[in-house]
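pinging the channel bc i need a second pair of eyes. not urgent but kinda urgent?? the chain im working w is below, pasted from the shared doc
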Amino acid sequence: LHEVNFLPRRFDEKGRENMSHPSLEMRTSAVAQSNGPSADRQEAKGVEAGGGDGKGFVRRSSMKKKVAMTAAALLIFVIGFLSGAVWMSTKFANSMSMGSLGPDQEEPATFNSGDQLWAYQFYGGMLKNEEQLKPLPPGKGVLQIKITRDEAPAAGVGCKLFLNGKFKTSEQATSESGVLSFNLPEGEWYINGMQCSRWKNKPEGDFMLVSPSRRSLHTNEGEFFPSFGDKGKKVTVNKKTPESPQVSLFLNQRVALLWPKKMGQKQEASLAKTKIYWEPYPKAVDYLIKVQHVTREGNTTTYMPVIRKRVKGTTSFPLSQLAHARDTAAKEEYAVTVEAYDANGDFMSESQSFDGTFTLTDGNVLVEDKHGIYGSADQDTVNSVYRETKIIESAETMIKEKMYDQAEALLSKVTENDLQGKKHLMTGYLSALRGNCKKAKALFDEAQRKGVDCVPDEYQGNCK
C-alpha cells in the first residue's frame, strides 16, 4: 500500500528493474517487424519471373541489392537521428525539470545506472496517481528537508514531494549539506509523501527513508499502517529561510531478510522445520515480525495483516511459534516483514516489504492471534476460533445467496468470545435484509462495542 501510485516500475525475472526507454523498445520492435520475406524466397521469385536462363533473376537481384543498400543506409540514418533526438530530449527534459530552486539547493545531480534508489516516506492524506497531480505553484516561501545517513549529510539524493493531495514537485537533489529546498507560496502545507529514486555515488545495499521518532514500539506497537488517517505532515512556510529545516529524515539501510528468500514466490515451508531468518541490525534491541496473508486475483495482489510478534535477543523465529490451525485443503501464501527498533523503542528500519513469500505444505495455516505481539492463545482456542471463522464466512455466503434460515442456523454455532462482534455483525446483516431495521441497528451497535470497526453499507441495506 505504501508503494502504490507513486512510480510505475517493471522488473525482470531476477528482480532487476527494467530501465529501458519504452519508445526505443517500440522502435526496435518496429524495425524487426519491417523485415520482409527472406532472401531465399526473394531469389526464388526472381528465377520464376526471369525465365529459365536466369538473366531476369540477375537483373532483379542486382536491382534488389541496390534497393537493399539504399534502404540500409536510410535505416542507419533514421536510427542515428532518432537516437540523437532521444539524447537531446533527455538533456532538454533534465534542464527543464529543475523547477524553482530554493536557497542551499543544488542543480539536479548527474546520475548513472548504479545510483538507483527506491526510498519513500508516506505521511498521510489522499493517494492519487502521480499523473493526476499538478505541478507545485511558484512562490517565495521556503520549504527545506534535510536527509542524513549515519549522522552525516546525504548529498546528491534526488527526490520529489507530494503535497496537499494535489501537487507534486520536480525531482531535485540534496546539497552537500544534505538539504532539499523548494520555493512555494507561503502558508500552511501538508506533505503527503516524499519519493527518492536516485542517489549519486550511492553506497551498496537497500535503503529506506525514516522519520525520527515517528514510529514507536511502545506507543502504537508497530501498527501496520499508522498514518493513513492523517492529512499528512503539516509544515509552515515563510519567505525567510528557516534556521533549521522543517523536516528531517534518515536514509537507513534496510534489514536484510534471509528467509523467505528475496524475490522467491511460494517457497515451501513447514511448521516443524522452517524458521524466519534475518541479519543482525546495528544497535537494534527489538525486532517485530509481521506476517501478511497474500491473495492474488488477476493482476491484483493483496496483503492482509495476520500476525505480529515481538522478538528480543535473536535473529530467527520458528514458524511453529506462530498461531496456526489445521486445514489440509488450504494452500495459503504468506509474506514476511521484519522491523528493527532501538533501545528507546524507536523504529530504525525494516526489510523490503513483500520481497519473498512462502506457503505451508504440511496441512497447516497461519491465523490471526488476538493476543498481539506479547503472547499467544492456547492451541485449542486458536483451532476453535479458526473453525468458527470459517462458519461465519459460510454464513455470509448463504446470506448473499438468500438462504437466510440456513445462515441463521450456522451463526448460532459461533460461541467464541473473540468472534462475537463478527457474529453480531452478520446477524444484523441478516435482520436488515429481512426488513427488521430496529433489530439490525441494535445488533450493529453491539458489534461495534465488541470490536468491529465499521458496518459496511451493503450490510445495512434499506436500514441505513
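so The first strand starts at residue 116 and ends at 122. and Helices lie at 22-34, 39-50, 55-96, 379-400, 404-411, 420-433, 437-449, 457-460. — does that match what u expected or am i reading it wrong
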